[in-house]
Amino acid sequence: MNQKGHARPLLKLAPLQHGPNSGEAAHAHAQGQLVLVQAGALSVETAAGRWLMPSGCLGWVPPGQHHGAVYHAQTQGMNYYFDTAWSTQHLPGEIRLVRLSPLLQALLAAINKANTWPDEALRPYLQVLAHAFSAQPEESLYLPMPRDPRLLKLTSALLAQPDDVAGLDAWAARIGMSRRTLMRRFQQETGSTVGHWQQQMRLLLALQWLSAGQSVTSVALEAGYQSVSAFIAVFKRHMGLSPGAWQQQDASP
């Protein structure tokens, strides 16, 4: 509390440091959590889906959101925990992921020194941070998950074997649905077609594996792309640069 009895907006800063193939069980906390990923990659997972947070991303988890985390590479960064009331007033009410802009980077660098600042000096920086974060375009690194157990069986199988090229008829037979019901239910529960979901899944897995240091060729083949050139074209269309360039950027200090 400050001298006027108001809770300090920024409650705690904590380094983010996890090894590959580690994770956190599903949990929720009363505070809002802003996650800065400076190296590596992690996924935040809820019942609704999963968000991939690679290096250079800033993710928000609102107060009370039940979620778990999986770390796909040696991951480093910083966690910022915010007062519940301040979080609810100034930041989104749902998980959100943005690319770290120069403005956000400068604000966070200043806020890293915030533990020594009086409350009245800190609040303007946090208000600008909240506005800049909310105004930044959202990264589309989200994979929705269905709730129907049969559809979950399908998506789990595709995640385990992303190079599966079976068509809708084969998938429908595997889970005991008609093709029409599969298409309709999948669209209702995920907001996506099976084909588009599979494309998004492959892109997120590719980012995950590139962050872990796998070669572009092995990632392309393992993710189920028809060729390395096809993978590079898809990656550039979505990420704005080639997989190799993205990997070098991710590895740079």
From TrEMBL:
InterPro entries, sorted: AraC-bd, Homeodomain-like_sf, HTH_AraC, HTH_AraC-typ_CS, RmlC_Cupin_sf, Tscrpt_reg_AraC-type_HTH
A Pfam family matched in the record: AraC_binding
Lineage: superkingdom: Bacteria
Designated name of the protein: AraC family transcriptional regulator
Keywords (A to Z) from UniProt: Activator, DNA-binding, Transcription, Transcription regulation
All copies of domain HTH araC/xylS-type, residue ranges: 149-249
Region span, Disordered: 1-27
